[in-house]
Amino acid sequence: MTDKPRIVIAYCPRCRWLLRSAWLAQELLSSFEDDLAEVALAPAGEGVFEITASDGTVLWSRAAEGRFPEAKELKQRVRDAFWPDRDLGHTDRPRS
Prior knowledge:
Blueprint: E1 6-11, H1 18-32, E2 38-43, E3 49-53, E4 58-61, H2 62-65, H3 71-82
Parallel strand pairs: 1-2
Antiparallel strand pairs: 1-3, 3-4
Helix pairs in contact: 1-3
């Protein structure tokens, strides 16, 4: 067993959100490859798009937010939940 967090992206397959889910999983794994145990894709109910951590923290809910996350937002939320002092580089810098 690992102490590293696990992320689950629950998505609606009937809504055709698999590719979006896979893309966000790829983004998380590329940014946190040494720090995450895994990013899992989980087919869920109709209209569901929710990203949760293994500790039960809801990192993103389409129902609550009314939209999908941008990769930058999701990376910041994962970072804030587990490694708040980490610098994400250019994704943390404000646009000039």
